[in-house]
């Protein structure tokens, strides 16, 4: 039984973001027939239910079975939403191909031994079973017993496999097999037909309920309001359909050119063949002739090329791609290249702008992924199938609607009982009961809930902030943590050259300042700056990374294409020649040719080039990169002893520091250079010096961070830059307030006998004049001998011996760490991670993947996270955050929910303000509509007691003149200009809101019931609904001074559905003014919105409605009373009504404003009754505030069997005091020393 259950269920995309559970089912004809008959009997209602709940359709029509035999599968997401999808299993038959296929099970269908296709074909039937999920095809693997993705090369292929299996192309037969199995290489976005979009909108459950309500109202003659709601709903649906259609058309245009590219491939045994890109399959060998828009993802195997990856990264900076190295090992090709495998991959949708053949033929690439499996396909899929938004407002709103519907059901049975008791016909009884049922759920609700968002979106558009996910505007109101990228976000995008510090004789020389205007003098450092970059010459314009461009411009050298004049280099493939410019200083070198590049990557933090100088027969290697990283690759004797101090001296001032190095290659042949491994090139270098660049804060940064801090919104920096630079920028921008302590967290992977370790050190605060410091050196001897004693090899900071003051624990300390340390803590110290994230402020040297992971970890602590970046390497984090804000207008901004055309962080507080205003507006409108439904429900229920209801024009006054207008204008109040130091309530089902609705319901109930009973006690009261004929005959003039006798004669039969009575005349002004009253009370202004009087239209409409109601109440015009179906009463009675509703208003306003909206009162109640927050981060903050040992300083924790139980106080382990002899003992002494300490 267990085995059968296991075969019935498998995981799809295990461990990925789009992980799904797959369940196998087989259709039963008997069940199917029964469902069909039931659908016909229910007039299609069952089909509608199946449309809303696809899992019910599967469960009703099918029985569970092993997936291997299933004809239908049910897919369920493994996230918190637990959404279901139904898919039919499709069979593909290879026998349809035009050439014979071997039916021998031992013979593989494709040459690739790793391919899932060989394991998915059932022989001798030559059949495959597949499903299509969100544009991706999966085929059933009979060996692994699970569905596997097709349309890509398996990751298990090694470099050797890719070169030798696919390097010469596929046979035409294998191409045909792969085309049939993988499908076409297209990214097609269907333009949805208008009728289909319309049907999807109309089949929304609420719209169907609305249609039922309006049909009932129209049948009862309530035409005017019904028509108004129909018009409003039609406009809403049309606008939604138009918007969806426009998005569909826009997306279709974005991808349609992708499918029309002509490409050249190598066919094994045939040669070159031209074909359309839609026919490409994984494994095809593609020829790159020159400029080309890539129609697929491909691995470069021969030659190099320059690509514009603006579509993916948001920055139109040329990126150099290098060929996948040859290798004989069996290591997977991605693992062989570690994190830097992207340097060999050409991504779909990017532009090849330049190719460089290797001399062994044209530039070649192997197709890696096709269709929606590609990078561009994945981007399009993320737009087509966005991650659902789990906003409490909508979940709570649904629960509220269910409650109102339940109230309606109670009303339905109440009406049935009353009308049946009085012997009213079943038709009238049912109609009136249904009418009361529909009163509680206002049909204007969907339109009302979206108006706040629409108004906020318009206001944001005026501020040049654009939104592709309007529902996220409400989420902005809950933001309590904002993550910022540094470069281009907090600081200026461009860097300015400040100076260079060359080295000679193991020491730093005099600084050359660029501000002096003097040309950079010739030196090896100048040669490195001129040649070590990834710049290209395109149409006579130098293009590339802004940092590279700035550095190259600082040399005053120029770049030219290679031509016949440069024959002295003895090579024809070099097309980048660097030579001194007219403004450069004297140089003994006529020109430098760049022969080979090892590109920069954020994971390696360095780049290098192989170059040759004019007239020389040997080659040079130049390297640049992060100083901490580059020093490791240099000979220790060439690194100045004061390197750590010098580096810190500049980084602490916020400068961006780049180090450069050089070495002579002993090779003399170009062929040897082409085969040179990066590891060999980047070793034993000579340290040349430092390049200092300024990265200034944007003028808007400091005020915005201060505003967020005052609003108690936490700010965090996530950057790829140097840790010390990040700390300095954080201090300068006051992200870390003055007087706060910074604790450096450094972690190391397990090594030999040492488990993983994490060290906590207090960064020296220069303001307090701390002199004693522990300086980490980059001396290679110390690195190699002391790596087990020292937790970090990357960061060079002065560490003070002071500890965090006892009285200043809490938010006075901030953790700072590198991406490497974060990764180690994530893997080996997971229990420590929440503790550090609660006070973690600076995360430096973070890779794009680590940024996404960090945002997700913050979300797990129940933070509402916003991510603000320039779109370059922040796409993953922008997409992962609750609110992603891109400061880039490139195509990568598609990944973010908001895009600001103003490239500074002023958009962040603006978004939060508008989000808070929209959220408060949504809550206010929802509370109003709830009370409006309850007010009408109570009034109508009281009148139902005597088989009456309000007149059509009475309802019309409340529904159109008040409610409709209120819903359309209440949300137009602008956001308050200042951010409050707390957030609005995030859920409808909160005590203040529930109490507000409950107490207002009680007030309304008491007033209406008292009025209903008290009017019957008046001496002039007459049961008009019983004696209407007598009353109308005697009171044809509607006299004011009416004097009626209770014992009047006439027809005493009960008239169901009549409207004329003293009860309705009394209740109508009370309910109408009640609606106006709650609209005013619930339209709260400060601290999240401007005062109500600034919303001129809304204020005017409320005053007008109130004036009109009072006018009707006190007017003596017969036509008005006749039209409104009211009875004239004594003036004193009307005054009494006005006094009662005014008293109710005063009580309700006092309760709402002074008690329910009193934040201090609720905080006191929470404290007195011991209510604690459910937010993880608040609980951690509370625990840590009570922990006297936290934060740790000057200690090292070691992981051991999952327990962090080893502690060492590093303040007593000053490396400078360790005798040199002890270090020279090597690994054995280190090991003994470690165990001794344990």
Automatic annotation (TrEMBL):
A Pfam family per the record: Cation_ATPase
Domain P-type ATPase A, residue spans: 260-383
Lipid bilayer topology: Multi-pass membrane protein
Gene Ontology cellular component annotations, sorted alphabetically: late endosome membrane
SUPFAM superfamilies per the UniProt record, alphabetical: Calcium ATPase, transduction domain A (SSF81653), Calcium ATPase, transmembrane domain M (SSF81665), HAD-like (SSF56784), Metal cation-transporting ATPase, ATP-binding domain N (SSF81660)
Gene3D superfamilies: Calcium-transporting ATPase, cytoplasmic domain N (3.40.1110.10), Calcium-transporting ATPase, cytoplasmic transduction domain A (2.70.150.10), Calcium-transporting ATPase, transmembrane domain (1.20.1110.10), HAD superfamily/HAD-like (3.40.50.1000)
GO terms classed as biological process: intracellular calcium ion homeostasis
Domain Cation-transporting P-type ATPase N-terminal: 166-212
Domain of life, source organism: Eukaryota
Residue intervals of the P5B-type ATPase N-terminal domain: 16-141
Subcellular location: Membrane
Keywords: ATP-binding, Glycoprotein, Magnesium, Membrane, Metal-binding, Nucleotide-binding, Translocase, Transmembrane, Transmembrane helix
PROSITE patterns noted in UniProt: ATPASE_E1_E2
Entry EC no(s): 7.2.2.-
Chain segments annotated as transmembrane: 30-52, 225-244, 397-421, 433-456, 925-947, 953-972, 993-1015, 1066-1083, 1095-1115, 1135-1156
Primary enzyme class: translocase
Catalytic activity: ATP + H2O = ADP + phosphate + H(+)
Gene Ontology molecular function: ATP binding; ATP hydrolysis activity; ATPase-coupled monoatomic cation transmembrane transporter activity; metal ion binding; P-type transmembrane transporter activity; polyamine transmembrane transporter activity
NCBIfam families: ATPase_P-type, P-ATPase-V
Family: Belongs to the cation transport ATPase (P-type) (TC 3.A.3) family. Type V subfamily.
Designated name of the protein: Cation-transporting ATPase
């Amino acid at each position: 039984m267990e085995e059968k259950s296991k075969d019935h269920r498998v995981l799809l995309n295990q461990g990925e973001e789009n992980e799904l559970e797959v369940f196998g089912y087989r259709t039963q004809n008997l069940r199917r027939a029964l469902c069909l008959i039931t659908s016909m009997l229910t007039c299609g209602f069952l089909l509608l239910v199946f449309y809303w709940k696809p899992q019910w359709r599967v469960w009703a029509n099918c029985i569970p079975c092993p997936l291997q035999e299933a004809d239908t599968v049910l897919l369920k997401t493994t996230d918190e939403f637990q959404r279901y999808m139904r898919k039919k299993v499709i069979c593909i038959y290879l026998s349809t191909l035009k050439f014979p296929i071997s039916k021998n099970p031992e013979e593989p269908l494709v040459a690739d031994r790793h391919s899932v296709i060989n394991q998915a074909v059932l022989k001798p039937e030559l059949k495959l079973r597949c499903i299509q999920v969100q544009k991706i095809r999966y085929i059933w693997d009979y060996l692994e017993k699970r569905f596997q993705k097709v349309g890509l090369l398996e990751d298990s292929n090694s470099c050797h496999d890719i070169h030798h299996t696919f390097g010469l192309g596929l046979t035409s037969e294998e191409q045909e097999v792969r085309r049939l199995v993988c499908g076409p290489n297209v990214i097609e976005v269907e333009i949805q037909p208008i009728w289909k979009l319309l049907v999807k909108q109309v089949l929304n459950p609420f719209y169907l309920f609305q249609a039922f309500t309006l049909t009932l109202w129209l049948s009862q003659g309530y035409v005017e309001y019904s028509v108004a709601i129909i018009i409003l709903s039609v406009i809403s649906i049309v606008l939604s359909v138009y918007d969806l259609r426009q998005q569909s058309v826009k997306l279709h245009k974005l991808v349609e050119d992708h499918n029309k590219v002509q490409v050249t491939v190598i066919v094994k045994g045939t040669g070159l063949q031209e074909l359309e890109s839609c026919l490409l399959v994984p494994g095809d060998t593609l020829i790159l002739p020159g400029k080309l828009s890539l129609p697929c993802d491909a691995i470069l195997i021969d030659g190099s090329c320059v690509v514009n990856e603006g579509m993916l990264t948001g920055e139109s900076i040329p990126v150099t791609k290098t060929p996948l190295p040859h290798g004989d090992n069996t290591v997977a090709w991605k693992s062989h290249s570690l994190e830097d495998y992207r340097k060999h991959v050409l991504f779909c949708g990017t532009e090849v702008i330049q190719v460089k053949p290797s001399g062994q033929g044209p530039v070649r690439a192997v197709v890696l992924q096709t269709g929606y499996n590609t990078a561009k396909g994945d981007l399009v899929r993320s737009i087509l199938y966005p991650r659902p938004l789990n906003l409490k407002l909508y979940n709570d709103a649904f629960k509220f609607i269910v409650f109102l519907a339940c109230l309606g059901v109670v009303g339905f049975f109440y009406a049935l009982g009353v009308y049946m008791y009085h012997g009213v016909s079943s038709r009238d009884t049912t109609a009136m009961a249904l009418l009361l049922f529909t009163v509680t759920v206002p049909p204007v609700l969907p339109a009302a809930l979206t108006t706040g968002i629409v108004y906020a979106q318009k206001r944001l558009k005026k501020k040049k902030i654009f939104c592709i996910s309007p529902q996220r505007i409400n989420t902005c109101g809950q933001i309590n943590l904002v993550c910022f990228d540094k470069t281009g976000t907090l600081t200026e995008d461009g860097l300015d050259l400040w100076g260079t510090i060359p080295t000679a004789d193991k020491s730093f020389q005099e600084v050359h300042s660029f501000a002096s205007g003097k040309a950079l003098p010739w030196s090896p450092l100048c040669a490195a700056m001129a040649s070590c970059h990834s710049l290209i010459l395109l149409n006579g314009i130098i293009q590339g990374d802004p940092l590279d461009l700035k550095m190259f411009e600082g040399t005053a050298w120029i770049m030219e294409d290679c031509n016949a004049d440069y024959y002295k280099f003895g090579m024809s493939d070099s097309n980048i020649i660097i030579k001194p410019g007219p403004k450069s200083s004297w140089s003994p070198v006529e020109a430098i040719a760049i022969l080979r590049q090892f590109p920069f990557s954020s994971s390696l933090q360095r780049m290098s080039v192989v170059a040759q100088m004019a007239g020389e027969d040997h080659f040079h290697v130049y390297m640049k990169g992060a100083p901490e990283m580059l020093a490791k690759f240099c000979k220790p004797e060439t690194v100045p002893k004061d390197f750590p101090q010098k580096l810190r001296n500049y980084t602490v001032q916020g400068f961006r520091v780049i180090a450069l190095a050089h070495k002579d290659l002993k090779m003399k042949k170009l062929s040897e250079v082409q085969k040179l491994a990066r590891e060999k090139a980047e070793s034993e270098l000579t340290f040349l010096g430092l390049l200092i660049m300024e990265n200034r804060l944007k003028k808007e940064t400091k005020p915005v961070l201060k505003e967020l801090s005052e609003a108690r919104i936490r700010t965090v920096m996530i950057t790829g830059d140097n840790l010390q630079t990040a700390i300095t920028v954080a201090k300068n921008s006051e992200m870390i307030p003055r007087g706060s302590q910074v604790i450096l967290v450094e972690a190391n992977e397990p090594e030999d006998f040492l488990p993983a370790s994490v060290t906590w050190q207090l960064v020296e605060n220069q303001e307090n004049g701390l002199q004693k410091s522990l300086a980490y050196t980059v001396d290679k001897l110390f690195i190699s001998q002391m790596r087990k004693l020292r937790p970090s090899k990357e960061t060079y900071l002065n560490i003070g011996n002071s500890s965090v003051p006892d009285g200043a624990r809490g938010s006075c300390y901030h953790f700072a760490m590198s991406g490497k340390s974060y990764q180690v803590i994530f893997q080996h110290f997971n229990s420590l991670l929440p503790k550090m994230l609660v006070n973690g402020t600076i995360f430096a040297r973070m890779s794009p993947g680590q940024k996404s992971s960090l945002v997700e970890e913050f979300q797990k602590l129940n933070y509402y996270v916003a991510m603000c970046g320039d779109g370059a390497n922040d796409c993953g984090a922008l997409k992962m955050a609750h609110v992603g804000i891109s400061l880039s207008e490139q195509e990568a901004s598609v990944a973010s929910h908001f895009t600001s055309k103003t490239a500074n962080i002023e958009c962040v507080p603006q978004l939060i303000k508008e989000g808070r205003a929209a959220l408060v507006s949504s809550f206010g409108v929802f509370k109003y509509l709830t009370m409006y439904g309850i007010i009408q429900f109570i009034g109508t229920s009281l009148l139902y007691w005597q088989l009456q209801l309000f007149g059509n024009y009475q309802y019309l006054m409340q529904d159109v003149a008040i409610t409709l207008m209120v819903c359309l204008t209440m949300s137009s109040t602008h956001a308050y200009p200042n951010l409050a130091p707390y957030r609005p309530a995030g859920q409808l089902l909160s005590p203040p809101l529930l109490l507000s609705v409950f107490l207002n319901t009680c007030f309304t109930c008491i007033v209406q019931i008292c009025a209903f009973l008290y009017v019957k006690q008046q001496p002039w009261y007459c049961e008009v609904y019983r004696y209407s004929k007598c009353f109308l005959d005697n009171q044809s003039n509607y006299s004011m001074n009416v004097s009626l006798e209770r014992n009047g004669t006439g027809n005493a039969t009960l008239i169901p559905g009549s409207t004329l009575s003293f009860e309705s005349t009394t209740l109508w002004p009370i309910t109408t003014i009640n609606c106006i009253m709650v609209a005013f009370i619930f339209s709260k202004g400060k601290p999240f919105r401007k005062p109500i009087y600034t919303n001129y239209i809304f204020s005017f409409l409320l005053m007008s409605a109130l004036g009109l109601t009072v006018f009707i109440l006190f007017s003596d015009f017969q036509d008005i009373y006749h039209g409104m179906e009211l009875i004239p009463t004594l003036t004193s009675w009307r005054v009494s009504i006005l006094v009662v509703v005014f008293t109710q208003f005063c009580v309700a306003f006092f309760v709402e404003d002074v008690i329910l909206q009193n934040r201090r009162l609720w905080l006191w109640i929470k404290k007195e009754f011991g209510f604690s927050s459910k937010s993880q981060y608040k609980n951690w903050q509370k625990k840590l505030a009570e922990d006297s040992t936290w934060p740790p300083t000057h200690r090292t924790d070691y992981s051991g069997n999952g327990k962090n139980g080893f502690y060492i106080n590093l303040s007593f382990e000053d490396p400078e005091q360790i005798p040199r002899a002890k270090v020279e003992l090597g690994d054995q002494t280190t090991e003994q020393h470690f165990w001794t300490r344990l």
